[in-house]
Each structure stands twice: as structure tokens, then as C-alpha cells.
Amino acid sequence: xxxxxxxxxxxxxxxxxxxxxxxxxxxxxxxxxxxxxxxxxxxxxxxxxxxxxxxxxxxxxxxxxxxxxxxxxxxxxxxxxxxxxxxxxxxxxxxxxxxxxxxxxxxxxxxxxxxxxxxxxxxxxxxxxxxxxxxxxxxxxxxxxxxxxxxxxxxxxxxxxxxxxxxxxxxxxxxxxxxxxxxxxxxxxxxxxxxxxxxxxxxxxxxxxxxxxxxxxxxxxxxxxxxxxxxxxxxxxxxxxxxxxxxxxxxxxxx
Length: 255
Description:
This protein has helices spanning 2-11, 28-35, 88-108, 133-147, 165-174, 178-187, 198-217, 247-251; strands spanning 39-45, 51-57, 60-66, 73-75, 113-115, 122-128, 151-157, 225-229, 235-239. By secondary structure, it is an alpha+beta fold. The chain has 2 domains: 2-97, Disulphide bond isomerase, DsbC/G, N-terminal (Nuclear Transport Factor 2, Chain: A, Roll); 110-251, Glutaredoxin (3-Layer(aba) Sandwich), CATH 3.40.30. The strands form 2 sheets. Strands 5-7-6-8-9 form a 5-stranded mixed beta sheet, with helices on both faces. Strands 1-2-3-4 form a 4-stranded antiparallel beta sheet, with helices on both faces. Helix 5 packs across helix 6 (178-187). The radius of gyration is 22 Å and the shape is elongated.
């Protein structure tokens, strides 16, 4: 069927990945997708005689629905009468939530740039490139909360935007006061930012290499990427510059 053809075409040629669910437990249509690169995490109840499967491919959660005859699979969204995605909660519980908690733990163990009061109650992790204009805008948007002592940013510095980004990121992390160096860089961005002083680059370059490894392991390739905990203590991720209406969800009530 068409949905199956589309997903198979999308994953042909990808590296083989072992499914979390044992292969002998998978019906043939689901196993075929596992063979093409999807990680089948677990099953979940679905209406209408269907059986749902939570899958992951390149960091994205995907819902699969096995038909009652066991011979066909539907890939994508299944909506109820209210327009809600049947798989939203199962996918978060089985795939997205654990993955985002894992990312939070990995980033928390990295060497990070402390920006703001380390005792501020709300911790935000953000992946920051020195030459990313949206990273600069995000830092400026956070300033009222940081100045009020409500929020601390912990930057995982990377260098992926421009040729000079890795050296500048390393120089910032290798400087005596990385937070002040980042602030100076943002203030001077129209003039090319800070100079990548060689001795600071040598100190900081191992940190940037390690941060790049974390990005690859998490299948991330852009900046900014913002990790925060919501009111339910669930890890949430926003890729790119957050919209104005998202700022209070990230930082809390405006001071």
C-alpha cells in the first residue's frame, strides 16, 4: 500500500539497526520496516482492530499500525473524533520522553558555559554556535529572566556555522571567564566577534570536539537547540529560535 511504499523508500540504504522488540515477536510487515532501519521500541493499544507500534528513525518518533489481518501496516497519524493523535501519548512515553531524558543527561555531563546565577531555580541547556544569529537572539530574549536570578543558561558551545566557528567556540571556552567572553563576542558580532586567541583555543578545543561528538550521538545538526523541563518535569526540546509565545513556557513567568 502507498504508506508502506513511502516509508520503505525513505529508509532504503540506511544502516541496519536492532529493534528493541525481539525480531521473533514482530509480524512480517513490522519486521520489514525494522530491517530497513526503523527501531521498533514497543507496541501499544490502538482502536479499530489495529495494533500500534512505537518506532524511532534518526531521532524521530514514528507510529505504525498493523492491520487486523497482520499483512499490512499504516505509517503516520491516526486521529480520533476530536482530532487528537492516538499515538501522541504512547510515542512520548515509549520514544520521545526517554530519548529527551537521555539527551538531558548527556548534555548535563558535558563541559558547559555557565551563564547566570548557578543557584537560579530554572536550568536551561542550549547548544550555541558563536556565529549563530538565532543563538544571539535567544540569549538576548533570556536576559530579563537571567538578570532577575530566575534562570540560568548552560551553553554547550559548538562550532558548526562558519569556518571560524570552532576556533571561536574553543577560544570562548578556553578563556579565563567564558561567560564574559561569550557576552563580548555577542556584543562585537557585527565586527566579527572575539579574536580566537591561540592559547585559549588550545585550552578549549578538546571541549568543542567532545561537544561535537555529543551532537552526533544525539542526531543534532543545527543551533540553537534548547532543552528545558516543563511544568510536569518532562524534558522538552525546541529546535531553532523559540517563538515569543514559547518564552514563558521555557523560562517561567516574565519577571
